[in-house]
């Protein structure tokens, strides 16, 4: 075949892949930062700003392995060996079908699985092209993916529950919770950095030889680096926290780096000013943001439209339907919870990094196949390298979707699953990142929606009251997961059949 005779499919594939990446960012933004915003550790705008960097980094540096799973292990590409152009068409309709469903679901505030969506779309295309035999139903294909849908929320929930129970009984319910909290913060720094750094080094930057380093050596390097950060956090950050919270000294975020050497600062006169002077995290404990003057100029209208997605209240703290659920969660010392705000931001970054590394595959997998066929005129092998520019292209789409449209899902989740505090949110996020990054390491495209939902339910059950969890919201999430695969599959399959089998004369 002359691959460049199908340039139009390649161009359309790029457009649809970007749209799918946009939908991924719009729908899955809540998976990484919903708990941070719900607990007040971050504003919605701050969460989006941070996520732009973490999502992009995870997608660019660790996204290639799961992209291979999406593009070659769901439908057997051998059926298309004699007609690579048909596979190009199939991947184009698959990514289009996925994008249509995910963006529609986001507009309705439904937290669906983008992994489900692209998996269903690829299956629908495969069945429309060559029947059910074209789909790899075994463990190495669809079976492994389906199993992950059930395993990931359970595993994530168990890990998060264990983390919170340890935090609850060793720190939060202690008579000396604040002092124990100061000691625990460096430990959590260590765990988070150790896990992320280990997997970054194991997988390595695309094209580098870092991933060939023996695993035991990688573990030692990561452990030493994480230990160094943990020691520094105790010497500087914990010291800063003690002086700011207990000493009520007027300290800014940049004083962290000189806290042990800084002379005593003026005290904050009123306890209520603690939050307003907290310039390092800028927590928002209320439910609404301050009104801003309306700018009716053209520039003001453009700015207002561009920033609309980061100026929405998504916390649901005054929702009367959730009052009973929130009341069943035990409240702990405000000072101790405050200790977890920054470390929760760190865990959210970890979860976002993991999300980018895993879910970028949903958009990159199909377009990578299209691009490689367009270049070579042949079906790419399973070991074909995913171009770095494609990873970056889709990562940018994720960031744009996150900033402009992600508030819909953030508002749907928020505190809707269970009452969220910094300590609870941290444990849920860390449990999610541990699950997703591990899945990314082994090439298993799990759903971050499943993981964070399972994690929040696991943490909510630690209240000792099953009614502290919004089971109606959980049921809605589960239902949306079920209908995603058939809807995306049907859309993709119908589009493929309509185009592939249309009359030519």
UniProtKB/TrEMBL annotation:
Keywords attached to this entry = Membrane, Phosphate transport, Transmembrane, Transmembrane helix, Transport
Q: Does Cell cycle count among this protein's keywords?
A: no
UniProt GO MF annotations: phosphate transmembrane transporter activity
Q: Which InterPro entries does the record cross-reference, listed alphabetically? A: Phos_transporter
A single GO cellular-component term on record: membrane
Top-rank taxon of the source lineage equals Eukaryota
What's the main place this protein lives? membrane
Q: Which family would the database say this protein is a member of?
A: Belongs to the inorganic phosphate transporter (PiT) (TC 2.A.20) family.
The entry's protein name is: Phosphate transporter
Q: What is the lineage of its organism?
A: Eukaryota, Fungi, Fungi incertae sedis, Zoopagomycota, Kickxellomycotina
